Amino acid sequence: MRPWLLAVPIVVLALTSGAPSAVAQRRGVAPVLHEPIPADAREDVALAVSLDGDIPAAINTPRGLVQAPDPARPVSSSEAPYNHPPGDARDTSFHPDRDTRRPDVLPYDDPFSPSTAPFKRLTAFDTVDASYTLSVRDAHTTPLPVMPTPTPDATEEQFYADMVVDLAAGQKVRIPSVGPGARVLRARAGVGTQDVRFQLWKDGAENWFIEAESSTRARVVMETSITRAAFGGDFGNPSWAELLPVPALPPTVQRSANEVAAKIGVSRRLTPRDDVTKLVSYFRSFTESEDPPTQSRDIYLDLALSRKGVCRHRAFAFMVTALSLGLPTRMITNEAHAWVELHDGRLWRRVDLGGAGTTLHDPLSNNVPYDPPPDPFAWPQGATRGDDLAERARRARAGAPATPPGAPSSSPTVSPLSPASASPAGSSGPNGGGDPNGAGGFGSNGTLGGVKSSSQPDDRPASIVTMSLAGADAHRGAPLKVRGQVASDGEPCGHVTVEIVLHSRQQGNVVIGQLATDERGAYDGAIVLPSAVPLGDYDVQARTLGDKRCGAGFSR
Predict the structure, then answer these.
(1) Cβ proximity of 478 and 496 under 8 Å
(2) What gap in Å lies between CA 484 and CA 347, rounded to an integer?
(3) DSSP string, 358-395
């Protein structure tokens, strides 16, 4: 055994409906004498196999066949539920802030397959008041129908949604959607095999909600479809008369926006297309900064004129400026990222302005990624795009080298973390990410996923990582409970990412998930073992890249 691996063997056992586990055989349980037949997504599509709620067992996507989530799968302790009602202050408004530091570890729950990370559409805002607080202009909700027909056409993409929701009798609970204009083809809410009656709703900014007749924690599985153009592509060339009407801004906000518009060089004298192109270029040029913008005037002017900020600052200032011109605009947020949507006279389109964080903490997702349409707008060199954030998270889970911000994902320049190649992290700071309430924080200067070039010296004190397991056996698809501590130079390492890795001589290293430490440097959670992990005996290791103060480290 290599000396740097934690000597805690576990056995990963296959779980199938027809084959007994090794544990069951050792206990004398009689085996089931038939051979299990694995699911075949191609047969499911060809035979139109359906699950509970008439959800198809598999769908065709540009990345190949994708199997449906199991609507009857029990809720695990590692799945965080959606539980915010419409009146919850955390979701009904957005207040801009001046913390322009780049985020480090960003928590994320990815309910969609194929994966749209980090663009889960959770909270949308479409109006601004005199205090620069964003909200929803029309919060009145209308029913969101479940329509199995018509069948999605060639312009639409299909997705599965799989989420856990704390349903409250008679209350509407916020849930994410895959994008603007999405429709629900089929849906099922239930606890195991027991169905729960529900109704879906949406408000004027297309925020989604679910209301049930009873209070329970349920799994909600849906098949949805959406036009591909909603994820980007060419904005088109509409006239001003073809755009949706935009209500007038408060006079003080309009005056400040006029000043920003003059600096950018946008006005109603240009076409909407030309204005959008200039706006995207300007707000994508923002930079993360450890030094907040000078507090000299109102917060919108200070952010927009200083050109400082991460994703939420860019999306906020873009929205105010665009609305002042009469461009229909929404700001969209989730726990990890923020961006805008623009209506081009035909439909709402997603526009990412960059400013994404460093590390996406999405331990449960092994979904294939969705490929959106090409971005029609230019990116400045070194930009931190939302797509890059998701790609780095996928590569980290696979144990592959990461790529620097703005570089193609096929050009790795940093080695994966190991005792021989651990590399220093960049600068850090709290409250800098996509979270509209200020969660996360990390710095830049050529950093990538908390790592700089391995040729640079690391003067940070190494992190001491401890780890313990709840048991010695684990099953594929079941949670593996892990806990431990990260400290450096006698002080706890708060809010750093911890990777959990399996190792065997036959399989090498397999990253099975990530956790994040709290302010005391402790981490505690359950990692669901991917179904693709081969059977066998494994050693387990916890490792971290650290942050600005804490160096890289691994359990022994």
Answers:
(1) no
(2) 48
(3) SEEE-TT--PPBP-PPPP-S---TT---HHHHHHHHHH
Backbone angles phi, psi at 210, to 5 degrees: -130, 135
Q: Which residues contact 254 (CB under 8 A, 6 or more apart)?
A: 248, 324
Q: Print pLDDT tens along the chain (556 aa).
A: 333 333 344 444 433 333 333 333 444 555 555 555 555 555 554 444 556 668 888 888 877 788 899 999 999 888 889 998 777 766 789 999 999 998 887 889 999 999 999 999 999 999 999 999 999 999 999 999 998 876 777 889 999 999 999 999 999 999 999 999 999 999 999 999 999 999 999 999 999 999 999 999 999 999 999 999 999 988 989 999 999 999 999 999 999 999 999 999 999 999 999 999 999 999 999 999 999 998 888 999 999 999 999 999 999 999 999 999 999 999 999 999 999 999 999 999 999 999 988 878 775 566 788 989 999 999 998 888 998 888 887 777 666 544 444 443 332 222 222 222 222 222 222 233 443 333 332 222 222 233 333 334 567 899 999 998 877 677 665 778 888 999 998 889 987 888 888 877 666 677 777 788 887 889 888 777 665 667 777 888 899 988 878 888 988 7
Residue type, 411: S
Strands 473-475 and 10-13, how do they pair? parallel
Peptide bond between residue 150 and the one before it cis (omega within 30 degrees of 0) = yes
Give the separation between CA 21 and CA 274, rounded to whole angstroms. Answer: 63
| In the block, residue with structure tokens 């060339």 | 237
Q: Look up residue 301 and give its amino acid.
A: L
Q: Give the distance from CA 69 to its chain's centroid.
A: 18
Q: What are phi and psi of 39, to 5 degrees?
A: -65, 145
Residue 403's Cβ-side half-sphere holds a number of Cα atoms within 13 Å equal to: 20
1-32+460-556 CATH fold: Immunoglobulin-like (2.60.40)
Residue 420 tokens read as 């021989």
Can you state the percent helix, strand and coil of the chain, rounding each to 5? Answer: 15, 30, 55
Greatest Cα pair distance in the chain: 82
Structure tokens at 268: 């109603």
Where are the CATH 2.60.40 domain residues in the chain? 1-32+460-556
Burial tier of 471 (Cβ tally within 10 Å: 0-12, 13-18, 19+)? exposed
CA distance 406 to 413: 12
